[in-house]
């Protein structure tokens, strides 16, 4: 039981949030394996970044190729136009939201964890995404935890798989400060929604990353 509890599946996108979570899982003593999704996203640079981060962290990784054939997001397909950053309205979900993505990713991760007898699944959802993405809210994660406990063999045996979102109450600068302490290789991460030679500097992801590094008082090593 002890060995099982110290294994973990980490959802790794290639961005700075999930990279921080991977290094935090390692710091907590977990034998981590990264789960990376090729889901038809706008570009492949984040997948390559995730592979490099896993190698740097000396953790294994698995790439799963899935599809959202019905679309529904600006992040799906190479011909979609990525919107520039704008202030979110409280009742508006941004066009970069991928329908039910975290439900699907967590379900895959939960199944993988149960199959390899891991005790935890880590996800990098956090506070700054609350207003835009419904599947990054604490309410959603708490509901998923209940579903995981009810819908898995490990759950009904009373030693279920933990769903851990350690960044959920942090903003981007707080995540970066934590990552610096953990020596996360931020120079290897890719956050931009575009797949150019360098970050576009205009999309929401670039905006929040730049704002986070500025508030943390450090330069972005990826630039």
Explain this structure to me?
The protein contains eight helices and five strands; from the N terminus they run H-E-H-E-H-E-H-E-H-H-E-H-H. Strand 2, helix 3 and strand 3 (60-65) form a beta-alpha-beta unit. The protein is of the alpha/beta class and 223 residues long. The longest helix has 15 residues, at 101-115. It has one domain: HUPs (Rossmann fold), CATH 3.40.50. The chain has a five-stranded parallel sheet with strand order 3-2-1-4-5, sandwiched between helices. The mean pLDDT is 89. The protein has helices at residues 2-5, 16-27, 45-57, 101-115, 138-151, 153-156, 172-182, 204-216, and strands at 7-11, 31-38, 60-65, 120-122, 162-164. Helix 2 (16-27) packs parallel to helix 3 (45-57) and helix 7 packs across helix 8.
Brief description of this entry?
This protein is of the alpha/beta class. It is 39% helix and 11% strand. It has one domain: 3-Layer(aba) Sandwich (Rossmann fold), CATH 3.40.50.620.
- Number of distinct beta strands: 5
* Class per helix and strand makeup: alpha/beta
Task: Give the N-terminus to C-terminus distance in angstroms.
Answer: 44 Å
CATH homologous superfamily placement = HUPs
Give the overall form. globular
The quaternary structure here is single chain
The largest beta-sheet arranges its strands as 3-2-1-4-5
Percent helix, as a range, is 25-40%
CATH class: Alpha Beta
- If helices are DSSP runs of H or I spanning 4 or more residues, what is the number of helices? 8
Mean pLDDT: 89
- Let me know the largest β-sheet: 5 strands, parallel
Quote the beta fraction: 5-15%
Order of helices and strands: HEHEHEHEHHEHH
């Amino acid at each position: 039981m002890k060995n099982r509890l110290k294994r973990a599946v980490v959802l790794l996108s290639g961005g700075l949030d999930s990279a921080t979570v991977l290094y935090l899982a390692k710091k907590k003593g977990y034998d981590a394996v990264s789960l990376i999704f090729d889901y038809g996203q706008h570009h492949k640079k984040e997948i390559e970044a995730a592979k490099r981060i896993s190698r740097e962290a000396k953790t294994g990784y698995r790439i799963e190729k899935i599809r959202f054939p019905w679309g529904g997001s600006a992040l799906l397909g190479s011909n979609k136009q990525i919107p520039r950053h704008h202030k979110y309205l409280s009742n508006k979900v941004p066009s970069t939201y991928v329908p039910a993505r975290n439900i699907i990713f967590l379900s895959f991760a939960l199944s993988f964890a149960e199959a390899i007898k891991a005790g935890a699944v880590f996800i990098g959802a956090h506070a700054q995404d609350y207003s835009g993405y419904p599947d990054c809210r604490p309410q959603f994660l708490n509901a998923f935890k209940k579903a995981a406990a009810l819908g898995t063999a490990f759950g009904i045996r009373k030693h279920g798989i933990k769903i851990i979102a350690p960044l959920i109450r942090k903003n981007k600068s707080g995540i970066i400060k934590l990552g610096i302490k953990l020596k996360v290789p931020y120079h290897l991460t890719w956050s931009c929604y575009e797949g150019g030679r360098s970050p576009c500097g205009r999309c929401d992801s670039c905006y929040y990353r730049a704002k986070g590094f500025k508030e943390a008082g450090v330069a972005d090593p990826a630039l």
